[in-house]
Design a protein that fits this description.
The protein has 415 residues and is mostly beta strands. The chain has three domains: 1-39 and 58-155, Immunoglobulin-like (Sandwich), CATH 2.60.40; 160-260 and 404-409, Sandwich (Immunoglobulin-like), CATH 2.60.40.3710; 263-384, L,D-transpeptidase catalytic domain-like, CATH 2.40.440.10. Helices cover 5% and strands 40% of the residues. The chain has a five-stranded antiparallel beta sheet, with no helix packed on it. Strands 23-22-21-29-24 form a five-stranded mixed beta sheet, with no helix packed on it. Strands 11-13-16-15 form a four-stranded antiparallel beta sheet. Strand 26 (325-333) and strand 27 (340-343) form a beta hairpin.
């Protein structure tokens, strides 16, 4: 048996959703197809003096190759395993490819009597299985089978939002890898098994949280803040994975990013100041005005989610009635619920003296402009000294407010 009988697992590239339109009900797998692979019949003859006789060499038993799903099967449920077996011989090679030429990995087993796919079938794809079997007489014969999987539709798929979502991005030392799902995930363990992080040996774990939006979310964070310069790769081999609730994933996802310099902003609400630390060294301290007692700023560790520049802030969007509606410069988003660090020139004279914001961390135009220019998405804000409770895990990226031992138990594979 050739050691190259099965193809090595390929590196998954970004794929696009295959198949559009209304999907039909996913049918049960079609019966296996059986192909008889018959060896040649070798004959010998001899004759002699006045009589005749003949002897036939017994033909090698035909090798029967079975493939499941069978030839011509349609609407096969994505994610199902492809199986190839043989009777009366052994498989010497199995190759599976989709209609785009992408190979599906697998391996021979049972002494060459069987082959199983190691990768899942994707939705909306046509697969061709080519198998070679060796008869008892040593002659190789080939079998070829094609089938197609059910198409992805809005009714049967689950989509995701990745953070970081930009290939090659540089982010801060607090940025978790985050995957938010459009629909509930019932089969959390199966989904988590399909997620791979490569980060130069960095210790970390997945943890399932409920996003403030109500969506299911799974984040991967290191035990400690990232080491600057770390290169991180996410491979989400989700195509064909059943998330539960009648939905599966239509494609794989792949994103690489790297960690920038260590930057941590420590906000002391009681002292009414913030300090930027870079690589553990103090860079600059700025006076601030945080939330007034009735709208106290959250305590806790918050990841800088986005640098949004000048935005309109309307109190009605965060449940504070008609308290404010204004354009705000140098806006740095810290939570989904609307916590920002930003310029607040209307509070001039209160910075460093009085906390009188609606929950955000405000500072002068010049100080906000300076801080905005220093920070990257993923940098950390550590807020202490407030009378408010610690921010929830799913409100922005509050992952760092969970101790490491507890975070590990939030993995679906640790239960």
């Amino acid at each position: 048996m050739s050691p190259d009988a099965s193809s090595a697992a390929p590196r998954h590239s970004r794929s696009r959703d295959r198949g559009r339109g209304r999907g039909r009900r996913i049918a049960a797998l079609a019966p296996s197809v059986v192909l008889a692979v018959t060896g040649a019949l070798a004959l010998t003859a001899c004759g002699g003096g006045g009589g005749s006789g003949s002897a036939g060499a017994k033909a090698a038993e035909a090798a029967k190759v079975s493939v499941n799903p069978g030839d011509g099967a349609t609407n096969v449920e994505p994610g199902k395993e492809i199986g190839v077996t043989v009777e009366g011989g052994e498989l010497t090679e199995v190759q599976v490819s989709d209609n785009n030429g992408k190979k599906l990995a697998g391996a021979l087993a049972d002494g060459g009597k069987a082959w199983k796919s190691a990768s899942r079938t994707a939705p909306g794809a046509t697969y061709t299985v080519q198998a070679k079997a060796k008869n008892g007489d040593g002659k190789e014969n080939a079998a070829k089978v094609s089938f197609s999987t059910a198409k992805a539709t809005s009714a049967n798929t689950n989509k995701v939002t990745l953070t970081p979502g930009t290939e090659g991005a540089t982010v801060g030392v607090g940025q978790p890898v985050s995957i938010r799902f459009d629909h509930p995930v019932v089969n959390k363990a199966d989904v988590e098994k399909a997620l791979k992080i490569e980060a130069g040996g960095t210790e970390g774990s997945w943890g399932w949280v409920k996003d403030r939006s109500g969506a299911d979310r799974v984040d991967w964070r290191p035990k400690e803040y990232w080491k600057p310069g770390t290169k991180v790769s996410l491979k989400a081999e989700l195509a064909g994975v059943n998330s539960g609730g009648g939905r599966f994933f239509a494609k794989d996802y792949d994103v690489d990013f790297q960690i920038g310099k260590s930057q941590v902003v420590k906000v002391d609400v009681k002292a009414k100041q913030l300090t930027l630390f870079r690589d553990g060294q103090e860079v600059k301290t700025l006076p601030i005005s945080a939330g007034r007692p009735a709208n106290a700023t959250w305590n806790g560790k918050m990841v800088l989610m986005a640098k949004e520049g000048t935005i309109r802030m309307n109190s009605e969007t965060v449940g504070l009635g008609d308290l404010y509606d204004k354009m705000v410069d140098y806006s740095m988003k810290l939570s989904t619920s609307g916590t920002y660090a930003h310029a607040a020139p209307w509070n001039a004279g209160k910075f460093g003296r009085v906390n009188d914001s609606s929950g955000c961390v405000g500072m002068s135009d010049s100080d906000a402009a300076w801080l905005y220019g220093q920070l990257n998405v993923g940098d950390m804000f550590e807020i202490t000294g407030s009378t408010e409770k610690t921010i929830d895990t799913g409100n922005g990226f509050g992952d760092w407010n969970v101790d490491w031992a507890t975070w590990q138990t939030m993995s679906a594979l640790k239960k």
